[in-house]
Amino acid sequence: MQTIYETFSCEETFRLGKMLGETAGPGDVYTLEGDLGVGKTVFAQGIAEGLGIGEPISSPTFTIVQIYESGRIPFYHFDVYRICDAEEMEEIGYEDYFYGDGLTLIEWANLIEEILPEKRKHITILKDLEKGFDYRKIIIAEVDI
Q1: Residues 42, 132: Cα–Cα separation, whole Å
Q2: What is the pLDDT of residue 59?
Q3: Tell me, what's the pLDDT at 85?
Q4: CB 135, CB 50: distance < 8 Å
Q5: In what order do the strands lie in the sheet with 136-144?
Q6: With bands split at pLDDT 50, 70 and 90, how would you rate the model's confidence at 129?
Q7: Chain segment 46-76, per-residue pLDDT in tens
Q8: pLDDT computed for residue 96 by the predictor
């Protein structure tokens, strides 16, 4: 099953992320795909606010994972763009996060497809400049292999 949303501003994209954060539960895994500059960080910031996290949220491109524990459940924010293979994820101890007690969000998850949990929400953010500079099509699909 999938749901398609359209947003027309950064604020709307943020609010959609916030809505997902408000409904997230312990052990949930969200995978997030989209081109550079499409709004993945804004979406992640919305999720964090929905979890009740008040601290600044930034993309963990160089650190691979950022951990936020000030919300109602922990938030594990991964950016695996710089990961070369799944073995690097093992060194990080990814299973503690993926199967832990918080919400795990993984940007560029297609790069580590072989180690992703069978059950997850797959989120794709797309731009369409013909519909406007700030237009985003956001597809949220339930995956249960």
Answers
A1: 18
A2: 80
A3: 79
A4: no
A5: 2-7, 136-144, 119-127, 29-33, 103-107, 75-79, 65-68
A6: very high
A7: 999 999 998 988 887 778 899 999 999 999 9
A8: 95
* Residue where the block lists tokens 């922990």: 74
Residues 15 and 49: their CA atoms lie apart, in Å, by 9
CB neighbour list of residue 127: distance below 8 Å, 6 or more residues apart: 35, 38, 135, 136, 137
Which domains does the chain carry? 2-144 (3.40.50.300)
Distance CA 61, CA 3 (A): 28
Q: SS in 3 state form for 48-87? A: HHHCCCCCCCCCCCCCCEEEECCCCCCEEEEECCCCCCHH
Which pLDDT does position 84 carry in this prediction?
A: 79
| Span between the terminal Cα atoms of the chain, in Å | 12
The residue type at 24 = A
pTM of the model: 0.93
